[in-house]
Amino acid sequence: MLHIYYGNGKGKTCSAIGAAIRAAGNGFRVLVVQLFKASATGERSILSGISGIELYPCPKELKFTFEMNESELESERGRYERTLEYIKDRREQYDMIVIDEFFTLSDCGFFTSSYLYNYIKEINKNNTEILLTGHDVELKFISLSDYATKFECIKHPFSAGAPPRAGVEM
Predict the structure, then answer these.
(1) Is the pTM of this model over 0.85?
(2) Residue ranges per domain, the chain?
(3) Which residue from 76, 86, 91, 96 has the fewest beta carbons nearer than 10 Å?
(4) pLDDT 10s per residue in the chain (170 long)?
(5) 96: which strand partners?
């Protein structure tokens, strides 16, 4: 089944990670892939110690795409191509696959929405639970999904200029 957690509110990654922990606690084999994130997050340090969860590697450091030059952007695109191939090639080994920030691949121009739509249709063929997160999601993805939850920000300290806090936002 396909799950989509999207919107501009806080909690998309937390929900997806919580589902991964619940699944692992029930004996599922889970792959967690985090895109557009570096490896030093609180959730990764905990997830790495949970039996049944495989963490796809993240870079140690990562720039925002708006800080990258053309060569760096092309390198990132290649890394994301390899990541999607890894998932596709091994999808039958897992009961659940979490792809955090999946829709950001389109938002940042690495892949077209049509490419990502066809990719999801292709990997969503067996009994694997697939969880995708992101900000902007086109209706065609919502129509394809079995679950869709929109997170809406009502109030957040970022709006007042507060930086992300370890243990809360990262």
Answers:
(1) yes
(2) 2-160
(3) 86
(4) 999 999 998 899 999 999 999 999 999 999 999 999 878 888 898 999 999 999 999 888 887 878 878 888 888 899 999 999 999 999 999 999 999 999 999 998 999 999 999 999 999 987 899 999 999 999 999 999 999 999 998 887 777 777 777 777 66
(5) 30, 129
